[in-house]
Amino acid sequence: MIYFDNAATSWPKPPEVKEAMVRFMDEIGANPGRSGHLLSIEAARIIYDAREALSNLFNVKDPSRIVFTLNATESVNLALKGILRPGDHIITSSMEHNSVMRPLRDLEKRGIGLTVIPCSPTGELDPGDVKKKIQSHTKMIVINHASNVTGTLLPIREVGESARENGILFLVDAAQTAGAYPIDIEGDRIDLLAFTGHKSLYGPQGTGGLVIGENVNIQDLTPLKHGGTGSRSEFELQPDFLPDRYESGTPNAVGIAGLLAGVQFVLKKRTEPIRQYETLLIGNLIEGLREIPGISFYGPENLTDRMATLSFNIKNLSPSEVAFRLENEAGILCRPGLHCAPSAHKTIRTFPEGTVRLSLGYFNTLEEVHLAIKTIDRIARSNS
Amino acid sequence: MPYAVILFSSTHHAIRAEKKAKENGFSVKLIPVPRHLSSDCGVCLRFSCEKRETLECLLQKEGVKMEGVHLLE
User: Fold this and answer.
1) Are A218 and A329 found together in one domain?
2) Residues of chain A contacting B15 with CB distance shorter than 8 Å
3) Which of A59, A68, A308 is nearest to A180 (CA)?
4) Cα angle for residues A276, A280, A282 (degrees, 5° grid)
5) Are B42 and A34 a contacting pair at CB < 8 A?
6) Do residue A164 and residue A265 come from a single domain?
7) Residue whose C-alpha is closest to residue A155's, from A179, A120, A201
8) Is the complex ipTM more than 0.85?
């Protein structure tokens, strides 16, 4: 079996992720921050260490500015719904996943102005186009760091720069990049970073977080959820300090234990070599597929402008048919269709049929890439 | 030897205080907040009184948010 669906969730995970979770269940197990006994303290240490490891990865000075959520979607919802008020204006790109598009369309119905900047047919965003749409009541700009459909990297640093010049908050959806591409909160001018734990950070599903930059006043960021935090127990009002304000209810501590091990794996391997290896894989895949008759690719030509995710189609074959044959004939697992990103598919002109998406990860090999090329070649030729 | 405890608003800061103190050679221990003290999070950091000034100074430098220091009889 060949797993080429890492943009949905990475698999397999480094063995130490599972080991950390088993250790948590066997030896710790308690509720972090709720009691004073040694197991509760040990659980709280794990959560603390995870925040600190993520701070090192993203260059965040104060780890308490990282709050845990279930996934990037929850983080995006917290940032958007927590800050935007009727009368505000927000700018986004046409390459967004529904994790961004759906909350924005919902906010639009409630009086928030929305501008969607069209991207090129390869999914590329011109930062100048964003700049032109900034208005006096623009409160925020939100874009993904890389597309889940085409792997196209968006120019976050340039967009962040114009956001900062204009005193606008900049939210980045890093679901497709965190761990696999360098992210520097300071250097990239990011005010809010939504990340997921279960993709290139190698944690389990049900982990993610939001980095809340120093420019964000937490009084202006309303929590999505209110409830018990283990702190200020004598008061019925939500705490107004980090990270407790945004972490009501018992956290996914066992998941965060796994996430910590995943982030430590990334810190040990380092993001640059991980990126180099994944680029080698995707470069070989694209080279090999190029010669196949009737194939069309989407996304940027240049490898420096993309992640290890590739969308393609074969003439006269539906994406789901290709995916079915890839699995049946060679055990290759991938994702056909619209990938929860209808706007991105409209941008690259593959709506409503969609594409076949192969998303590679650090645990894939060149042998797997070559087998995929051979299989796709056979499928294309058998159809022509 | 008289002891003192530092209280914190968030468990995050209690754990950070413990970690930074230990890294800098202080002998500290996280203990449940004594009942007679108003507690914000469930634990506080116990240390020996004579180190009060240097420990508080270190924790401030490390961005730890403290809610008060209490002497323990």
Assistant:
1) no
2) 41, 44-45, 47-48
3) A308
4) 115
5) yes
6) yes
7) A120
8) yes
Closest CA to B7 of B35, B39, B29, B34: B39
Closest partner residue to A241 (CB to CB) among B10, B32, B39 is: B10
A234 to chain B, any CB pair closer than 8 A? The answer is: yes
Q: What are phi and psi of B41, to 5 degrees?
A: -105, 175
d(CA A56, CA A157): 19
B6 φ, ψ (degrees, to nearest 5): -105, 130
Residue A57 CA to residue A207 CA, distance in Å, equals 16
Q: For the full predicted model, state whether its pTM sits above 0.90.
A: yes
User: What confidence tens digit (pLDDT) does each residue in A146-204 have?
Assistant: 999 999 999 999 999 999 999 999 999 999 999 999 999 999 999 999 999 999 999 99
Domain end residue (candidates: A269, A294, A313) = A269
Q: Please check whether residues A365 and A262 belong to one and the same domain.
A: no
Using one digit for the tens of pLDDT, what is the confidence trace for A197-232? 999 999 999 999 999 999 999 999 999 999 989 888
